[in-house]
Design goal:
The protein has helices at about 30, 70, 95-100, 160-165, and strands at about 1-10, 15-20, 35-40, 40-55, 55-60, 80, 100-105, 110-115, 125-130, 135-140, 145-150, 155. It is built from four helices and twelve strands. The protein is about 10% helix and about 45% strand. It has about 160 residues and is mainly beta. The chain folds into two domains: about 1-85, Elongation Factor Tu (Ef-tu), domain 3 (Beta Barrel); about 95-165, Roll (SH3 type barrels). The longest helix has 7 residues, at about 160-165. The strands form two sheets. Strands 1-2-5-4-3-6 form a six-stranded antiparallel barrel. A six-stranded mixed beta sheet has the order 10-9-8-7-12-11. The chain is elongated.
């Protein structure tokens, strides 16, 4: 499964739930018809019966959720689709492609593993070093690692790694 969004809080009296997109294509949530809503306490397949785009995200309504009390139970749930349905930008990647990839230097020495994108306003990646420390690397500019999906790795200059770790 791949997370493409997250449910936030109820909106209105008919079971709508505010949602934020976690997809490279912010319009994706409006095209979903069936999703898996996942949280640590539940995993349910639900049909999307209404998707309304708003300036600050989406309002979604799901089959079987018709009141604010029930909608509140789903706050914080991830909106997931099967990995094979996850679309990627042309010649691009999605976060799920990066998770668990090894981060290596130019000499093929493993420095850590990718945890996914960092929860920051700027595009960055979170890596757990082999020593267990979390390191944040930028995704753009001269300090950014090179993403090699075919080789199944991220490559960073050793000087950059040493400076950031």
């Amino acid at each position: 499964m791949v997370a493409v969004g997250r449910l936030l809080s109820p909106h209105g009296l008919k079971g709508h739930i505010k949602a934020e997109s976690h997809s490279w294509n912010p319009e994706r949530l409006g095209r979903l018809r069936e999703v898996v809503l996942w949280s640590p306490v539940r995993e349910e397949t639900r049909k999307v019966v209404e998707a309304i785009s708003q300036p600050a995200g989406w309002r979604l309504r799901f089959e079987g959720i018709s009141d604010p009390e029930t909608a509140k139970l789903y706050g914080g749930s991830w909106i997931c689709v099967p990995a094979e349905q996850a679309t990627r930008p042309k010649d691009g990647w999605i976060e799920a492609d990066l998770i668990s990839l090894p981060l290596i230097d130019e000499n093929e020495i493993v420095l850590g593993n990718c945890k996914g994108l960092a929860n920051l306003p700027m595009m960055s990646i979170a890596v757990t070093s082999v020593a267990g420390k979390e390191i944040i690397l930028p995704m753009e500019g001269p300090l950014a690692p090179r993403i090699d999906l075919e080789g199944g790795k991220l490559v960073v200059d050793r000087e950059v790694w040493d400076a950031l770790s």
